[in-house]
Amino acid sequence: MSGIAELSAIDLAAAIAAGQVGAVEATQTYLDAIEKREPRIDAFNEVLAERAMDTARSIDTRRQNARPLGPLGGVPVAVKDNLCTTDGKTTCSSRILADFQAPYTATAVQKLEDAGAVILGKTNLDEFAMGSSTENSGFKVTRNPWDTDRVPGGSSGGSAACVAAGEAAAALGSDTGGSIRQPAAFCGVVGFKPTYGRVSRLGLVAYGSSLDQIGPLTVDVPDAALLTGVIAGHDPGDSTSVAKDVPDYLGQLETPIENLRIGLPVEFYSNALEAEINAAIHKAADIYKAAGATILDVSLPHSRIDCDAHGNLSSYAVACYYIVAMAEASSNLARYDGVHYGHRTAEKVDDIIDLYSRSRAEGFGQEVKRRIMLGTYTLSSGYYDAYYNKALKVRRLIKNDFDKAFEQCDVLLCPVGPTTAFKIGEKTDDPLTMYLADIYTISVNLAGLPALALPAGLSESNLPIGMQLIGPVFSEDRILRAARMYEKASDITRFRSEMARA
Length: 502
Ligand code: GLN
Known about the structure:
Blueprint: H1 9-17, H2 23-41, E1 44-47, H3 49-64, E2 76-80, H4 107-114, E3 118-123, H5 157-164, E4 170-175, H6 181-187, E5 190-193, E6 213-218, H7 221-231, E7 261-265, H8 275-290, E8 294-298, E9 305-307, E10 313-315, H9 316-332, H10 352-363, H11 366-379, H12 384-408, E11 411-415, H13 431-435, H14 442-447, E12 451-458, E13 464-470, H15 476-489, H16 498-501
């Protein structure tokens, strides 16, 4: 069957279940696409071709024996390389873990496999998920399939780029401050960060443990609903995963929400936002209005973004996030010392401290070192109260603002990032500018909320513009339905890059 790569994951699973397409045929199609496009995209750290073909063959055998295939039976998916898999390596795109072989598979990946998915390989990221462009990878820079001079966003840049380039039917990413949503927006795909606790983090290499969450990157909203349903649920192996039933996200997806109240956070529509993005999101609001929704202004005062006369941005949420996330990272990354985990120096060492510091100096990249130092500083005695405890208070204020806003509206509609995909190298000299790429996404993680990024439209220079829908905790079903309303009402169905169609 031709056009396999044009099918959504749901349609491909249906075609495989009906015997119109073989799992082997589908997997080979994607492996061929990877071979053809990877030289220009570099989305994958490792392609697990043999293993993928073995899985695909077993799916085809199941079908021949009339056994059920699972909701993702035979669908080729990619996973971010900070998710542990017993096949292949789990590197977090860090030289310190360049040879790390995980002893178990992350629950979310296992659930995909149990649902019949074929794991194609591991995708590139900013080292330990620290970044917004995938340029901080210890191995290589992934390119945006819409314009290969531009970044795909980050840190799940490899996952977003491979879906946008038609190299995988869907992918998993992780989101600590925007790392699923921002690359989804840059690459014109759908990215969903579920509520903190909705998906098990077991087997996700920890960055900021109170913020991290795994979620899907897909070509459309129904696929996001399907994958979220597959990976969600309680896991005794992750005490922060919540024992709450997982709704059937696909069940009600096509039914529009009546009397939907959409809040526009006034603080997000400032001069910090590119005019084209502002216009695209307001156009989206008009589409919702025409579909019967009410649009109202709401306020998130502690997520305010200030922009001075020189264009310099500042935000409480960014400051708060970069204290909380760095503090947690400095603690989480202490285990990579060449003894417990990770690369060990080959140099002659004086003592154990020397061994630790040389191994870490050789293994970690510059951005990771910067963050470990920042985090260690804010946690050190004398500074803990001034920085870390204060940041926790600000975090609570940010969360309270959202709670108040959700008394007035059902979902929030806002930008994903202040710009469309930027040029490779454009922000690498100035970490602060890079941090500000997350001004609209990080408060969601600080508040533990679910949020979805989906394509709103295209810019004049033919780059995807994303928009973000945020809801209260465990409102995944509402967000997905609201997103689906837009997807159906607008002309943004199956938004694909040229490359994916080639
Ligand atoms: N860009 C943010 C950071 O650098 C968020 C990354 C993420 O969500 N993993 O920390």
